[in-house]
Design brief:
Blueprint lengths: L5 H18 L3 H4 L41 E7 L13 H5 L17 H6 L24 E4 L4 E4 L3 H4 L5 E8 L7 H7 L11 H8 L10 E4 L23 E3 L18 H21 L4 H23 L7 H6 L8 H15 L4 E4 L13 H25 L6 E7 L2 E2 L15 E2 L3 E7 L6 E3 L14 E2 H11 L16 H4 L9
Parallel strand pairs: 1-7, 1-8, 4-12, 4-13, 5-6, 5-7
Antiparallel strand pairs: 2-3, 4-11, 8-11, 9-10
Helix pairs in contact: 1-9, 8-9, 11-12
Length: 505
């Protein structure tokens, strides 16, 4: 029988402490450590590989690169792909030429445009892929009209949000490349699923900025992701798990799995337990002062203790007035889920959370291959009032001036009728052109930037790839996307994106 050495015994002790410390809330606690500079990998300068970039890039210090317009971001994502032509980019030509093929209209056939092959990337072989090329024009399934003083056209499915149109800034020439639902990850990471994946937009914001509240995570996720294959939408990958999104439930009794004290344990008992673990950890810290993981674990226990009070309080919607609850639709069955998540988002940014990613609808529900009219009528009704309520609430509280709201989906839907399986009333996925909008800190009000063609097929001009949305969001937070390169990692030009300066106030 071998006798353990001093070093092996120490490793066993540290392994035990590791299991205790990180087992409390898994990676959640790690997500709160970056601001202390103790959980990140040691920063090493990255030597420039071209004359166009700095000689070296160090890791972030938690400070903004330039004056920030926004303190926080509420990123609202509708999973499945809403139809841009039946929401925020109405196209009367679809009604005029309904039933005809693209080739029989006076417009250039969009399928023959070089933009199609330039931006479209199918996972399936091109010769067997039928997506995105349905040629029979399908008419709009809802009416539309100009709204507000700005006269921006929106469809009739958004009566409440239409009342806030003069606060909104639309980007109608977005495009992406994945025509399958991996585009849900792509809108958040900037990468097609066949390529090396990148950290999500929320993770980059977390990586670049210091905290505004020592007791709450910087990057919180509400309502998602709902599947393991969409985890990339909130993941931090090589930035380290401490920068990943922290999913919270709208349940003050248990908002964070394994994050509450056991019922059989008193507060004083837990406090003494934490003090003991802290003393043991400190003993190892004296022996190993450069052990970054150990130092992070010490902080994790302290943060875990504080989170037990701060997190439930932050998402306790019972503290809100009845008027505010009605503003978000919490008193109606069809709007309650989205309303709770968006109201919780406001409460979180109010308390200093930097980035809140909200999934107001379930996974994939906007994916209207069939029965688009029925599907979108119902779904718009579930989010219209809560989203409009969020804009109104932020404005009334003076928060809209320092909060950026982003409203997006993974792609639009085809101008043509989807005919697979005898389809007669739906649209397929459409990455070639779609619409998102932003509101609040630093963006123009009642403004439309960019356009798709007459049929809503292609984003005109250069359009904006999804990382342009990332670059703009980070810019408004005071971060230069090109200065956030991680030591030892060189991203592609497309990963950086370009700020959409035309929409900035």
């Amino acid at each position: 029988m071998s006798i353990p050495t001093r070093n092996s015994a120490c490793c066993h002790r540290r392994a035990l402490l590791s299991d205790l410390g990180m087992g409390f809330t898994g990676l959640t606690l790690g997500a709160m450590l970056a601001e202390d500079g103790i959980s990140a990998a040691p920063v090493r300068p990255r030597v420039s590989e071209s004359a166009d970039e700095p000689a070296a890039v160090a890791g972030p210090d938690g400070q903004s690169h330039h004056p920030a317009r926004a303190d926080s971001v509420i990123w609202i994502f509708l999973s499945g792909g809403y139809s841009h032509v039946e929401t925020f980019d109405p196209k009367p030509a679809l009604n005029k030429y309904a039933g005809l093929t693209f080739a029989k209209t006076p417009f250039e056939n969009p399928v023959n445009s070089p933009l199609h092959k330039k931006r479209f990337r199918s996972v399936a072989a091109e010769e067997i892929n039928v997506r995105d090329v349905y040629p029979i024009i399908y008419p709009m399934q809802v009416g539309w009209k100009p709204r507000g003083d700005s006269g921006i056209e929106m469809t009739d499915w958004w009566p409440q949000l239409a009342g806030e149109v003069d606060e909104l800034c639309f980007v109608r020439n977005m495009w992406t490349t994945d025509n399958d639902h991996a585009a849900e990850n792509q809108i958040h990471t900037g990468r097609h699923r066949l390529d090396e994946q990148q950290p999500s937009i929320g993770a980059w914001a977390h990586y670049g900025l210091g905290t505004l509240n020592q007791n709450l995570p910087k990057f919180v996720v509400l309502g998602g992701p709902t599947r393991s294959d969409t985890r990339l939408s909130i993941d931090s990958l090589y930035l380290g798990p401490q920068h990943a999104g922290v999913p919270l439930a709208i349940d003050p009794a248990n908002p964070l799995p394994f994050g509450q004290r056991q019922a059989s344990q008193s507060l004083e008992q837990q406090r003494r337990e934490y003090e003991l673990i802290g003393r043991l950890n400190q003993l190892s810290a004296v022996e190993y002062p450069s052990d970054q993981k150990l130092l992070a674990r010490i902080r994790a226990w302290e943060l875990a203790f504080r989170m037990q009070t701060a997190v439930p309080a932050a998402i306790d919607l019972a503290q809100e007035t009845q008027q505010t609850r009605q503003l978000y639709g919490l008193d109606q069955d069809n709007t309650k889920v989205a309303g709770e998540r968006l109201l919780a988002a406001r409460r979180l940014i109010e308390r200093g959370v930097r980035f809140v990613q909200v999934f107001p609808s379930a996974y994939g529900v906007w994916d209207s291959h069939q029965k688009l009219k029925d599907n979108h009528t119902r779904l718009c009704g579930t989010v219209d009032l809560p989203v409009a309520g969020l804009i109104r609430d932020l404005r009334q509280r003076g928060l809209l001036e320092r909060t950026l709201v982003v409203f997006c989906t993974e792609f639009g839907r085809t101008p043509g009728l989807e005919q697979r399986s005898g389809g007669v009333d739906g649209r397929d996925h459409h990455p070639n052109g779609f619409t998102i909008w932003m509101a609040g800190a630093g963006v123009k009000k009642g403004f439309v930037h960019g356009a798709t063609d007459e049929l809503g097929y292609h984003a005109l001009g250069d359009g904006h790839y999804v990382t342009d949305l990332h670059a703009t969001t980070l810019h408004l937070l005071g971060l230069d996307n090109r200065r956030l390169h991680f030591p030892g990692r060189k991203r592609l030009e497309i990963d950086d994106g370009n700020v959409i300066h035309e929409i900035l106030a």
